[in-house]
Amino acid sequence: MAKAEDGTDWAGLLIRVRDSRDRAAFAQIFRHFAPRVKAFLMKSGAGAALAEECAQDVMATLWQKAHLFDPSRASVSTWVYTIARNKRIDALRKDRRAEPEELDWGPEPEPDQAEAMEAQEETERLGRALASLPQKQRALIERAYYGDLSHSEIAAETGLPLGTIKSRIRLALDKLRHHMT
Amino acid sequence: MTIRHHLSDPLLMAYSAGQLPEAFSLVVATHVSLCDECRARLGSFDAVGGAVIEEIDEISMGEEALQAALARIDGLPQATRAEPLKPAGIFPAPLADYVGGDLASVRWQRIGGGVKQAILPTGRDASARLLYIPAGTAVPDHGHRGMELTLVLQGAFADDDVRFGRGDIEIADENLEHTPVALAGEDCICLAATDAPLRFRGILPRLAQPLFRI
């Protein structure tokens, strides 16, 4: 399951989609993420045809909601994951899910290149950490995210380095609150 | 506002994984709306989902998938940034959404002793309700068969000398017999969710229970 560390700047591509509706950038994102979303939905119990259709929906949502993407808060993988998860709840569980209040981050900030790369590098580090976990532990995390465990079966002890990610997001929130007062 | 009682890691991870019953999701989303610490922790659990997507063995899309996608987005307007709704009352946006407004829109039912409740429309695997407890009043002593989450929206309550104020969340499981008491000063309003019916200790509340679905 080796992943090509090709250093593609996914956030940069999605910002091109966001700011100039760049179809070539969208196509590149689609080629990388659509087959992953399809696999994710099949692991979650969808048949191939439904998974393909839902993956199309997820990518269309990514296009439509590109204005909500902020590279300093989440990597593109994380963002794609949240859209795919919501699609799964919608299509497979036919359930409604309450979302936290959107924060008023103000007018689109000039993306800070360093911050944006940081979120992506963190996700990549997290991916490597996930891949290097003992098989049993890794399977448990994956099953939780595929929707294969009920909430009472989920144990949050991941063994993954989540502290730095939490701290970075916390810092961004503190900055935002500071600007708001 | 200083929040002292937070969501647990398993709850945040289950919410991130999309595995919570709707009623619990509502409580989590409402707490996260008030609590930056839990919002940041939730962000880190979402990042695990991102890593899972990144590391998955991909399954090829159909041959025409990209063309279909490009054709589809041609007809799709891109939404533009909307000003986030800033609720002016005491209910954060996800809760205001379920209530259909703020405090004034709640249709309370009296359940005795000045205590009122309003059941919110959620899926059946767990139930959510708003509780109105007059200052200084105790919520009937009760135990649980399942898990109960209680989030304070106004006022405060004490349970075994531990104080819960606005934004604080109490996580109770079946081993906890508790008697939350609304503190003097302001009437206490909470959002509570449980995945099993509550059982009350007194005979009267127990008789009333099926009637009021508490």
How would you describe this protein?
The complex is a heterodimer of chains A (181) and B (214). Chain A is an all-alpha fold. Chain A has one domain (10-180): Rna Polymerase Sigma Factor, Chain: A. Helices cover 64% and strands 0% of the residues of chain A. Chain A is built from seven helices and no strands. In chain A, α1 packs across α2 and α2 (23-43) packs across α4. The longest helix of chain A has 21 residues, at 23-43. Chain A is globular and about 40 Å long. The mean pLDDT of chain A is 87. By secondary structure, chain B is α+β, with helices and mostly antiparallel strands. Chain B has one domain: Sandwich (Jelly Rolls), CATH 2.60.120. Chain B has six helices and eleven strands. In chain B, the strands form three sheets. In chain B, strands 1-2-3-10-5-8 form a six-stranded antiparallel β-sheet, covered by helices on one side. Chain B has a three-stranded antiparallel β-sheet with strand order 7-6-9, with no helix packed on it. In chain B, α1 (9-16) packs across α3 and α2 (22-34) crosses α3. The longest helix of chain B is centred in the first third of the chain and has 20 residues, at 36-55. Chain B is elongated, with a radius of gyration of 21 Å. In chain B, 44% of the residues are buried. At the A-B interface, α2, α3, α4, α5 and α6 of A face α1, α2, α3, α4 and α5 of B.
